[in-house]
Amino acid sequence: MNTNHIRTIHGGSSLQGTIKVPGDKSISHRSLIIGSIAEGETNIEGFLYSEDPLSTADCLRKLGVNIPEIKKDEPFTISGLGLDGIKEPKEILNCGNSGTTMRLLMGLLAGQEGKNFILKGDTSLNERPMGRVGKPLSLMGGKIFGRERGNKAPISIHGSKLKGCFIGTPVASAQVKSAILLAGLKASGTTSVIEPASSRDHTERMLKAFGADISIRGELGRNIVINSGGKLIGQRILIPGDISSASFWMIAASIVPNSEILIKNVGLNPTRTGILKVMDSMGCNYEILDKSTIAGEPIGSIKVKTAKNLRSFTIEGDILPKLIDEIPILTVAACFCNGISEIKDAKELRFKETDRLKVMARQLHKFGAEITEKEDGLIINGQSRFHSAEVDSETDHRVAMSLAIASLLAKGGSKIIRANAASVSYPTFWEDLAQLTN
Ligand code: S3P
Fold first, then answer.
1. Range of the structural domain that residue 390 is part of
2. How far is the CA of 100 from the centre of ligand 1 (A)?
3. Where does a domain end: 238, 273, 290?
């Protein structure tokens, strides 16, 4: 990443206008992966044209999947190989910065009998924990190896015969759950996963739409059961806008004085809308319009106006997986609420693209924020007055965008170093920011 990529943001401008955020990152990855192992064609519209999903496309091409060149804002069609058609690649699969790519592919490839695969990532991804996926896959009979006793990439997979298992995941992670479900498609018999709290369920929804024998049971919490043996049939997938990308504008318009914006076509899957609950408790002024459902996912438009006297909030427990990627921008929001906000039970944030608890506290301090870092969260003293600062994304896309919103609240011009990190999930973020603050 080019460390010299600096953006200067001037505080003071309000946000006005209408915007359509880019496609959902989680659904974009899944559309390619599930489309690749389906029979027949899958047509994809609304795909997120950004570094992470393009890493997934690149890996799948190396596995023999016919994916055309993907162009921004253009629908495309992929021809699936079926469950057994994946080829042994001649090259290492490079997952870039994308945890979703690496973890979901581990699940997909573990059961490809007799074929060998090597997966690597960038400096950040190679330090993230992969044992959380490797261990359950090993219980199913998978042969997964990596640095630090299998926990870190580069990861090597020797595809083998898997058996269905009953697996309780220790962390509520959609990536771990999805890897197990994808492995379950090739395992003998039934694979059953229970997670400690509900994480995003796009994989379950999409596998069902493609015809997988998958069901959700509730006796012991959220239990997902998948049976192998069926066929997946290619589908047409319409990908809604990403609520995690919309959240930067939802919070910006709430806290920057005199703002009023409309964000169109946002995915509102209930496993992703934790941020709306927090905005309710803060007393934000927003409305959901034009609710509908596309391709099994609820969507709507979100109208947000500035709200005065925002209340402090506490985030803890089962809501965490429903707003896991929104913690950086909610930390910025907390700086502008009345009173002390607290984020608890958020240790998972330490295993993201960066240690987001540490990095957000470190960078927001530079604006004058009062934040105390705890082992599993943050305590944020609200009503901050931000002064301009030179801050650094530390290569994390969500940190870069959160710091850009924080800069709008600072007096004067602030500089964001390594601002290009945003292209991992939102390449047009800076253009959209310029449009809304014009
Ligand atoms: C994702 C799951 C979450 C999220 C990530 C995308 C997914 O990660 O933070 O940005 O697409 O499944 P975890 O599964 O590690 O919680």
1. 6-22+240-437
2. 6
3. 238
CATH number of the domain that residue 18 is part of: 3.65.10.10
Ramachandran class of 177: left when φ > 0, alpha when ψ lies in -120 to 50, beta otherwise? alpha
Beta strands in 190-284 (DSSP E): 190-195, 213-217, 222-227, 236-238, 260-267
Judge whether 69 lies within some domain. yes
Per-residue pLDDT of the chain (438 residues; tens, 9 = 90+): 444 699 999 999 999 999 999 999 999 999 999 999 999 999 999 999 999 999 999 999 999 999 999 999 999 999 999 999 999 999 999 999 999 999 999 999 999 999 999 999 999 999 999 999 999 999 999 999 999 999 999 999 999 999 999 999 999 999 999 999 999 999 999 999 999 999 999 999 999 999 999 999 986 668 999 999 889 999 999 999 999 999 999 999 999 999 999 999 999 999 999 999 999 999 999 999 999 998 789 999 999 999 999 999 999 999 999 999 999 999 999 999 999 999 999 999 999 999 999 999 999 999 999 999 999 999 999 987 999 999 999 999 999 999 999 999 999 999 999 999 999 999 999 999 999 998
| 325, 392, 396, 432: the active-site residue | 325
Q: Which atom of ligand 1 is nearest to the CA of 203?
A: 12
In this structure, which residue's CA is closest to atom 4 in ligand 1?
325
Residues 160, 264 within the same domain: no
Atom 11 of ligand 1, nearest CA residue = 26
Structural domain total, the chain: 2
Nearest in space to 354 (alpha carbons), one of 59, 6, 122, 104:
122
- 265 Cα to the center of ligand 1, angstroms: 21
Confirm whether 229 is domain-assigned.
Answer: yes
Q: Is residue 1 part of a domain?
A: no
**How many angstroms separate the CA atoms of 407 and 1, rounded?**
22
Looking from the CA of 294 toward its CB, the CA atoms found within 13 Å total 20
Q: State the Cα–Cα distance between residues 38 and 159, nearest whole angstrom.
A: 19
Residues with CB under 6 A from ligand 1: 26, 100, 173-175, 178, 200, 324-325, 348
Compute the distance from residue 99 Cα to the ligand 1 centre, in Å: 8
Q: CA-to-CA distance for 376 and 122, rounded, in angstroms?
A: 26
Give the length of the chain: 438
Q: How far is the CA of 267 from the centre of ligand 1 (A)?
A: 16
User: Are 336 and 365 within one domain?
Assistant: yes
86 and 130 co-located in one domain: yes
The last residue of a domain, from among 238, 259, 288: 238
Per the rule left: phi > 0, alpha: psi between -120 and 50, beta: everything else, 219 is alpha
Whole-structure pTM over 0.85, yes or no?
yes
| Pair 230, 348 in one domain | no
201 catalytic? Reply is no
